[in-house]
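Colleagues,

For the teaching module next term, I've prepared a clean inverse folding example: a structure given as tokens, and then the sequence designed for it. I'd like students to try predicting residues themselves before seeing the answer, so please don't circulate the second half yet.
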């Protein structure tokens, strides 16, 4: 099993180009089931993307990977489509459930394994099924599979989600794409990745509008035969490396971004004393010596993202005084805390609230990654810690970070995979 070795206390400097968004690419890949010929650019070639590609190939789509061009070409001309997503292709990646909506929409049936992914909470698919039932699907769960059918096709509906859910919003939008009539979704997630999905679907011939947390989908039967789409940048990757730069950077520049999308994260980091020069399409993080305590709560976009909570916690260990994080999205997302404590962090968890007392002197240790974002928080801790840190179970990292070691090495980090 592979591990990462990090020798900390090495000041970082240089430039990091941010990859395309994994969380935007996955639902757009699922959406290609609705298409005929698509070329996607700025694709991040991480494990979850390859898993989704394997799933689409299994279903019957023809996919060509152009890795040097960071592109994928997808053709859906196979008349013998499988409306099945088996356990072996969904067990490691929650986004596999997103093929449910487009398969139902186009082929009127689907059999999808209940999904897996990170062990950060139950993350049930109840809201996905709630929306699809409203659209007229008949659904059973049997032997670990969702079995769905809409013999006469899906019909438009007015749906109000009881709680905000990114995945359920995406599946509902995908399922409604060619449903008969006009569908209105309320209390939706409006993450930038969802806006990118909607941009893709509108390029495909859709007519979808957004008003606040309301999404209106005018059902379409015709699609454009051939389209190109450029995936947005990964705001979580950007936030992760910005925190790395705040921890132990001299001067790091980030490009291929749109700072408007991450203005809340920039504001919070500046409030903590991180020195940031931000322009429209790039920013620089400068050496930041005086990190200040703060309190944050994770919330749906445009609030602070749960996917940056673990990384920010590492920065809070540098702050003088008591910082707090309230985790409102997932009930089991403090699994990185015991590992950070092994490295010398002073953190206490009480239900949904983590209290971080700083500044703490972090020292290298052998630690274990438990999920995607927890694993990268240990990388950040290793960069700032004294001596050597060994991180086990780094396959979690490979699910969501493209060329992590290469990008950090270019900025002088002492990091290697064994």
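(Answer key — instructors only)
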């Amino acid at each position: 099993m592979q591990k990462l070795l990090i020798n900390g206390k090495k000041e970082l400097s240089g430039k990091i180009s941010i990859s395309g968004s994994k969380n935007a690419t996955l639902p757009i890949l699922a959406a290609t089931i609705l298409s005929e010929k698509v070329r996607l650019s700025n694709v991040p070639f991480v494990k979850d993307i390859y898993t989704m590609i394997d799933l689409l190939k299994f279903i019957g789509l023809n996919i060509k990977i152009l890795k040097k061009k960071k592109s994928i070409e997808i053709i859906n001309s196979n008349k013998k489509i499988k409306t099945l997503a088996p356990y072996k292709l969904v067990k490691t990646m929650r986004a596999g459930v997103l093929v449910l909506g487009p398969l139902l929409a186009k082929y009127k049936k689907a059999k999808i394994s209940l999904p897996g992914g990170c062990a950060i909470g139950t993350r049930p698919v109840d809201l996905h099924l709630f929306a699809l039932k409203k659209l007229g699907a008949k659904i059973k769960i049997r032997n670990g599979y969702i079995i769905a059918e809409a013999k006469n096709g899906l019909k438009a509906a007015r749906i109000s989600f009881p709680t905000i859910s990114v995945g359920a919003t995406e599946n509902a939008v995908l399922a409604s794409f060619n449903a008969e009539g006009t569908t209105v979704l309320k209390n939706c997630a409006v993450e930038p990745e969802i806006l990118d999905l909607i941009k893709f679907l509108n390029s495909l011939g859709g007519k979808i509008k957004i008003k606040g947390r309301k999404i209106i989908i005018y059902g379409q039967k015709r699609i454009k035969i051939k389209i190109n789409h450029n995936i947005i940048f990964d705001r979580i990757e950007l936030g992760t490396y910005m925190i790395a730069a705040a921890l132990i950077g001299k001067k790091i520049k980030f490009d291929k971004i749109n700072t408007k999308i991450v203005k809340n994260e920039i504001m919070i980091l500046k409030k903590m004393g991180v020195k940031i020069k931000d322009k429209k399409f790039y920013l620089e993080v400068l050496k930041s010596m005086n990190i200040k305590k703060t309190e944050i709560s994770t919330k749906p976009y445009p609030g602070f993202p749960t996917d940056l909570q673990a990384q920010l916690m590492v920065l809070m260990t540098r702050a003088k005084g008591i910082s707090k994080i309230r985790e409102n999205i997932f009930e089991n997302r403090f699994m990185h805390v015991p590992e950070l404590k092994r490295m010398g962090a002073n953190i206490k968890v009480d239900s949904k609230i983590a209290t971080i007392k700083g500044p703490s002197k972090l020292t290298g240790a052998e630690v274990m990654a438990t999920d995607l974002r927890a694993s990268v928080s240990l990388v950040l801790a290793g960069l700032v810690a004294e001596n050597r840190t060994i991180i086990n179970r780094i396959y979690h990292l490979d699910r969501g970070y493209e060329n992590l070691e290469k990008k950090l090495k270019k900025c002088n980090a002492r990091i290697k995979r064994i």
